[in-house]
Specification:
22 strands, globular
């Protein structure tokens, strides 16, 4: 099933299944736009499907379903297989953070009769794409008394939205002479929050009114921004894209489409797998996978060590378990766009509608930062995908000297696992509105399920 158009093989029943899966995905990402909300939604689905949170001292046996939660931004879910943990796992790893704008710690100020919110962009963005579009505010405010306030403004139909202003075309002569990277500067990505002054307030009355609104709705003070984690994301729901409804437009496909397909693959396993199955959802990929909730954290290794102990095995078996493991780094790839075909090499790029994408290596130019999967693993994947009639394709991320990018594959590869990137093509990657194919979403889900239950 290599490089065939997946739509051609679906009968009416299969088309209905693709649409139902896509609809559930659209609903999920429309309300889970940040890594915190993604973890919250994931845990809810895990509990609905019989998973329990692992506690220190727990024992596990064949068929048990457990998950580990890390700082509300990272979750690992496991179905314990027939073989011992030390014989290896089958792992689907995806990241759940996406490019966005983060609110600074001292963000509120008033200028020109407007109250504005200062931001710092997160991940690789084209800054000019974030102006004059509807935006929403998500996150938490942690107060000194130990309470945490959840903030969500802009996605409920009754909510106001916020946004970033741009210079009118009539006065843009100088601005339009700048290169694209500087048409909008990072320090100009400030949100407009209000214009109405608070009556009786002489100093910064518009800012005072915004603070009064925040106090009334969330009981937070200006000082509480010091311990807040607020993220600015596009407002609005994911929607069908194209007159034929073959695609989905939405925020955060990179990498929530692979995260959702990976999670569903684990949830939908109807048998005890031969090897322990795992869905690992991590944070911070867009800034290097660093930190306590990123893929470079020791959290994943700690989870495996806990499971070994829970099976009565010594934790000295940890390295053996990792070495014997196979992983699909579930991450997206750059889909071919005929408007920008000059950055691609046609024989070695991926196309919407042709199924899951296997990237033997990512990296940049001379394969810098790549994982470069072993051909033995690729041959095995070819066989099991063909046997399961899963559509797949292979790709590189653009022409050799054009640029490049990376995923979490090399990080788990450093633990001596067999790892390859496996995701789906995306158009408009890292923009506020990304586009994927419903067929690729479904074929990726099918590929992930096939991988988890396949035998050597």
């Amino acid at each position: 099933m290599y490089a065939k158009n997946a739509w051609e093989k679906y009968d009416e029943a299969q088309l209905k299944e693709v649409e139902e899966f896509s609809s559930k995905y659209e609903d999920f990402i429309s309300v889970n736009k940040t890594e915190r909300t993604q973890v919250k939604g994931t845990v809810a689905l895990l509990k609905e499907n019989g998973f329990r949170e692992f506690k220190v001292g727990d024992k596990v046996k064949e068929g048990d379903k457990v998950y580990f939660l890390n700082k509300n931004k990272n979750v690992n879910a496991f179905i314990i297989g027939k073989k011992g943990i030390e014989e290896g796992l089958r792992i689907l790893g995806a990241h759940i953070d996406s490019p966005r704008l983060d609110v600074k710690q001292n963000p509120l100020y008033e200028a020109g009769g407007l109250c504005l919110l200062d931001t710092h962009y997160y991940g690789g963005v084209k800054k000019y794409q974030w102006v004059t579009i509807p935006l929403a505010i998500y996150g938490v405010v942690c107060k000194k008394d130990g309470t945490t306030v959840e903030v969500c403004i802009g996605d409920d139909p009754s909510d106001p939205i916020v946004g970033i202003n741009d210079l009118l075309i009539h006065l843009s002569a100088d601005q339009l002479q700048k290169p694209g990277a500087k048409v909008v500067e990072g320090e100009d990505l400030d949100l407009t929050l209000g214009n109405r002054p608070l009556k009786g307030e002489e100093k910064n009355p518009v800012k005072a009114n915004v603070l009064a609104i925040l106090k009334e709705k969330y009981d937070i003070e200006e000082e509480d921004f010091l311990s807040a984690e607020l993220e600015i994301v596009p407002a609005g729901k994911a929607r069908d894209f194209g007159l034929d409804r073959s695609m989905i437009a939405g925020y955060g496909h990179d990498d929530k489409c692979c995260a959702y397909a990976s999670l569903r693959a684990v949830l939908d396993i109807n048998e005890v797998p031969e090897y322990t199955s795992c869905c690992a959802l991590v944070d911070k990929e867009e800034v290097g996978s660093i930190g306590a909730s990123g893929a470079q954290s020791r959290f994943f290794e700690n989870c495996i060590a806990e499971l070994l102990e829970a099976q009565g095995k010594p934790q000295t078996e940890l390295k053996r378990a990792l070495t014997n493991s196979y992983m699909l780094s579930s991450d997206v790839s750059a889909g071919f766009d005929p408007l920008y075909g000059y950055v691609m090499e046609n024989r070695n790029c991926c196309y919407l509608g042709k199924g899951v994408v296997f990237n033997k290596y990512t990296g940049a130019r001379g394969k810098s930062g790549c994982n470069d999967a072993n051909p033995e693993m690729i041959a095995w994947l070819r066989r099991i995908m063909d046997d399961a009639k899963v559509n797949f394709q292979t790709a590189e991320l653009g022409k050799v000297d054009q640029g490049g990018g990376g995923t979490i594959a090399y990080i788990l590869g450093n633990l001596n696992m067999n790892v390859i990137d496996a995701g789906m093509p995306v158009l408009n990657m890292h923009s506020p509105m990304e586009v994927i194919s419903k067929a690729d979403l479904f074929e990726s889900y099918a590929a992930y399920k096939t991988f988890l239950v396949a035998k050597f």
